[in-house]
Amino acid sequence: MNPTCSRCNRIVYPTEKVNCLDKYWHKGCFSCEVCKMTLSMKNYKGFDKKPYCNAHYPKTQFTTVADTPENLRLKKQSMMQSQVHYKEEFEKNKGKAYSQVADTPEFLRLKKSQEQISNIRYHEEQSKRKVGDPPLNAPAGYQPPASSQNYHCDPDPEPVRQAAAASPPSSGKRYRAIYDYAAADDDEVSFVDGDVIVDVHQIDEGWMYGRVERTGQQGMLPANYVDAI
């Protein structure tokens, strides 16, 4: 049985049938609800299961809430509650905020390098100090222990002073530079191809600490720029 048209309520035959918006229409009856312009499946717009053209398509309208005394009172009360809650959270978390530094591989390498450099400098300072000198950060009026004081009279003190003044031999390894290197940071040292690096200490797989014999400067240097002598 053939359906009826939603516009004219007449029978719609298959040759002129348009099935759209869950209804059946004659091709001539499928038109805009306002201007009656004939529509097609390409240019119609449906609203509430009725066809409209683009010009007369109903626009969505928003409902405006009036600022009644009751609404204003509720709005003010909500703002006050938000401020009270914010102050409570602020007082609870006061002094607890801190910045956490991630332990990245680069940060761990720098931290380890700084610790090793500090240890090397500490041992160098200790080796430069004479026997019987007060330790670092010693209080005023410090006296060395009795066991470290020399109560014997040395008949020939001159050779002893010369031995104390002589610098100890280098105990570190010696390397020769095979490339030029310019220091990229304050804790690094620059050198040129052929320079001899003495007092070398291994920091990690990629870095060493040593002193350039030609310039007397010391600091960190890349391990792949030098060869052992």
TrEMBL record:
Keywords: Acetylation, Actin-binding, Cytoplasm, Cytoskeleton, Ion transport, LIM domain, Metal-binding, Methylation, Phosphoprotein, Repeat, SH3 domain, Transport, Zinc
Signal peptide: none
Membrane found in the keyword field: no
Chain segments carrying region Disordered: 123-172
UniProt main location, coarse: cytoplasm
Record GO terms (molecular function): actin filament binding; metal ion binding
Name of a matching Pfam family: SH3_1
GO (cellular component) term, any one: cell cortex
Lineage: superkingdom: Eukaryota
GO biological process, one term: monoatomic ion transport
Entry's localization field: Cytoplasm, Cell cortex; Cytoplasm, Cytoskeleton
Biased composition (Basic and acidic residues): 123-132
Functional note: Plays an important role in the regulation of dynamic actin-based, cytoskeletal activities. Agonist-dependent changes in LASP1 phosphorylation may also serve to regulate actin-associated ion transport activities, not only in the parietal cell but also in certain other F-actin-rich secretory epithelial cell types.
Protein name per the record: LIM and SH3 domain protein 1
